[in-house]
Each structure stands twice: as structure tokens, then as C-alpha cells.
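Appendix B: a complete holo record

For completeness, this appendix reproduces one full record from the ligand-bound portion of the collection. The bound molecule is zinc ion. The inputs are the chain sequence and the ligand SMILES; the output is the full three-dimensional arrangement of the complex, encoded as C-alpha cells. No fields have been trimmed.
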Amino acid sequence: MTGEQPAARPLALEVIAVPNDGSMSDQPTNATIVGTDEVFIVDPGDQAGVEIIGRAIDARRGVRVKAIILTHAHPDHAVAAPALRQRYGCPIMLNPKERPILRQFLDWSDVDLSLKGGMTLTVDGGRLETLDTPGHTPGHVALYEPVARVLIAGDLVAGHGTVGIFPPHGKMSEYFDSLTRMRALDIRSIIPGHGETLTQPPDVFGRYIERRTSREREIYAVVARGPTTIEAMLPELYPDVVPQFRRAAAATILAHLEKLRAEGRVTADSDDPFNARWRVSE
Ligand SMILES: [Zn+2]
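The structure of the chain with zinc ion bound, as generated:
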């Protein structure tokens, strides 16, 4: 015996695109089955996930589902969870900070196990490390597989386009902070909540930070030209926005303004952010 440890094997990760109702994303949701003989199901998706993920699990004869892990409680990630829990007799894991989102969007609220950053979840001889990544939602948790250095990112990033940060549940300052922390880790590939797996380099998180920072600068510049409402900022900041995305665009502007306000850089003259006139701080 040389005393050497056998090289750790990366956990098997199967990504399955699950269609959703389109209200949260224009792309299917990525569900991930982690492990081989014993598995975690991460983000089983919308209603269609009951059938699609159920079929994928049943095809692996004799497999044991250890838990259903939800990165966050948005319905396009979480609707299928209780039916699959019942089918496989496994717990649902979710951060308790997601409770307000469960209450707002879903018709169930009984979570079996608390999820938060700093946990090590073992399955099939390997492990996932949990990482607090709030911003998109208050209790968003990403999962890191340290052997292959893969991040199951939930809605921290998207395969293409951007991720929605919508107040009150979404917080831009937390989102910047999460991106900055993820950027410091040695992550080789990223399974986003929607769209294709992303490989690093390029510096995916750096690009997100850069894009949001330049957006923030543009918003500050618009406010600096004189007190203005979010409604009045819209055509300048989103000249091509189609009607169905106007609310999302307005909410994104608000998310940036709330961050700037917390930093003492802008103020609003009313408690109703959409009727308020925003100005830069003296
Ligand atoms: Zn989401």
C-alpha cells in the first residue's frame, strides 16, 4: 500500500430540459439528475417534469432517489417536486428563505429539509457542496460538484440572455455579491437553470458583472440628468422592449435603483417606487 487515495470520480450529471409554461422563462428548465445508483433530482421543473423526470428515473432500474433539491422556489423549477416526492418517498430540500415565493406561486409549502450554503450533500460516493447565491431570489442556493468543478447554477445565470432580478424578492446588491463570490471559485462548467451548459473560460460571471455594471451606469446617468420616473426612463433604457416585457424591464430598473439607493447614490420622493421621481443624492 502506498497510502495514496484513489482519484475521486466526478458524479454523473444528467441534464434534462423540462418544458415550462413560459411565464418565467422563454426556455425550458434544466433539471439535473446527480449520481448513478443513488441520485439527487435538482430542480425537477414545471408540471411536465413529473412525467419527464419520472420516466428518466424509472429507466434507471433500482435507483434510489435520495432527495429533490430546489435551487429556489420559482414554479418553473419547483412545481413537479411534490408529485415526485410522493412517487419516490424522498424529501424535498429548499432554503426556508424561499417561503414567501412558495406562498406566492405554489399550492404546497411543506418542505422536508432545510437547504443553505455551506452544506456537503453526499450521494453515490461523491458530493455536492451548497453555495448561498441570493439575488434572483432571497434563498437561492447553487450546487458545486468539486471533482469535475461543475456548478449547478439554477437562475444565477442563463444559457443565453440574462436572469431576471425583480423586487421585492430579487435584490441586485445580493446578485452582484453572489456573482463576485462565484467568480472567485475555480468553476469549469456551469449548468444554468435554462439553456446550454456554459464552459469557462470565458469568464462567465465576470461578463455578467460587467453587463450589470454598465446597465447601472446607464441608469445612474439617466437619473443624473434630472428627477425622473421609472416609466419615463423606460424608452431610453429599453428602446426596443415589446409590450409583454415592459413590466420586467421596469422591475429591472427598480432593482438597480434600489441598489443605488442602498449605496446612498439616489433617492426617491415617494414610497411607491413606480410613481416616485428618482434623483441623484446631493
Ligand atoms: Zn427563477
